[in-house]
Design brief:
Order of helices and strands: EHHHEHEHEHEHEHEHEEEEEEEEEEEHHE
CATH topology of the largest domain: TIM Barrel
Strand order of the largest sheet: 2-3-4-5-6-7-8
Structural class: alpha/beta
Distance between the termini: 22 Å
CATH superfamily of the largest domain: Alanine racemase
Number of strands: 19
Length: 377
């Protein structure tokens, strides 16, 4: 996207991304097993730009959630294998087959529908089978039924069943028993397929947290997502591996008000000055990705020091209390996420303050923000 000048910018560090990739490779050992998850516009970072860096690194496979994400990659010339992890609308199956996009089969309807279409049009579509081991979103529930699918297909040869996978639901909760129950269910299925001599080429189970904690179960492929973006939670069981956040989110002061005690700031008089105050206005609001729940509780960094967000964050603007500081002026840089001097605000610290997941903070940074890939911070 081409931008006119924009006070609000998201800087993405290639150096930090490459650091995270190398840290991941030190665990996985084999680059061909790494299939990064690029859903939701590469977690809000920028799908095409992010994919270009991965392409230069030598990544051979991508995972996405939706057909529209796969289509953007194909339309921009990416030749990697692409697996759609989620549901695929019947109307989009033809596009996937014609553009070498791998389809996830997750229930009887999607299976039978694809078999019928394949026979009708002479297709041999590449698919992965999703096994529900306990998350209870999409996927076949019955191990024996999955084995019968493989057995039937070995005779009919209607589908190119390239892979089988599942997804762990409580890796970040430290629930070892539940996670091991999922792993054991998956292992039982893979054993059955081995016995039947029908194990597919790509067996995969682990995403980011699982890659670190259960790397003996990486199998043929893994699906790193938040790990690449440096978004692992601050948990003691991840301390052996350091991944770096890859973004700096910043704005600039566009106006300063000098208000007497008792004056209101923002919608619904969300903040009342309790002294003569200096209030800086930023051209950044919740439509840009600054969570509205940070109203009267968030903070920013200006000239290396922390200052509180005051009043209700509006759609396009917010206010910061910089009272008592003479050397803060219109045009000064403001850090929303990132480091300045010895001060820093991390994505993780914001997500924990708001009791939400780290990825929600990043993917809500809107396309109104200019996104710039730089070599390093």
């Amino acid at each position: 996207m081409n931008y006119l000048y924009n006070n609000n910018k998201l800087l993405i560090s290639k150096a930090n991304l490459l650091y995270n990739l190398n840290m991941l490779l030190s665990i996985v050992k084999d680059k061909s097993k790494i299939s990064p998850v690029l859903k939701a516009n590469a977690y809000g970072i920028g799908l095409i730009e992010f994919a270009e860096i991965l392409d230069e690194y030598g990544i051979e496979r991508f995972c996405v959630a939706k057909v529209i994400e796969a289509s953007r990659l194909r339309e921009n010339g990416f030749k990697q294998e692409i697996l759609i992890l989620g549901h695929i609308e019947e109307e989009n199956i033809k596009y996937c087959v014609e553009n070498n996009i791998t389809i996830t089969i997750h229930d009887e309807y999607s299976l039978n529908n694809l078999i019928i279409m394949s026979k009708e049009y002479g297709w041999f579509p590449k698919v992965h089978i999703k096994y529900n081991t306990g998350m209870n979103r999409i996927g076949f529930d019955d191990k024996n039924h999955i084995c019968k699918i493989f057995e039937r297909n070995s005779v009919e040869k209607t589908l190119d069943i390239e892979g089988i996978f599942s997804h762990l639901s409580k890796v970040y909760d430290g629930d070892l028993d539940f996670t091991l129950s999922q792993i054991n269910k998956f292992e039982d299925l893979i054993h059955e397929l081995d016995v039947m001599n029908l194990r597919p080429n790509l067996v995969h189970l682990l995403s980011s947290g699982g890659i670190i904690l259960y790397n003996s179960h990486i199998y043929d492929m893994c699906r790193p997502g938040c790990l690449l973006y440096g978004l692992l939670p601050d948990r003691s069981y991840f301390k052996d591996y350091t991944f770096k956040e890859i973004i700096t989110f910043k704005s600039k002061i566009i106006q300063i008000h000098h208000l007497e005690k008792g004056k209101s700031v923002g919608y619904s008089s969300g903040f009342i000055t309790d002294r003569n105050s200096k209030i800086a206005i930023l051209p950044l609001g919740y439509a840009d990705g600054l969570p509205r729940r940070l109203s009267n509780m968030g903070r920013v960094i200006i000239n290396g020091k922390y200052y509180p967000i005051v009043g209700n964050i509006s759609m396009d603007m917010c206010a910061v209390d910089v009272t008592g500081i003479d050397d803060i002026n219109v045009g000064d840089e403001v850090i929303i996420i990132g480091k300045q001097g010895a001060s820093s605000i991390s994505i993780i610290s914001i997500s924990e303050a708001l009791d939400t997941v780290r990825t929600e903070i990043v993917i809500n940074i809107s396309d109104r923000i200019e996104k710039i890939f730089i070599d390093k911070f």
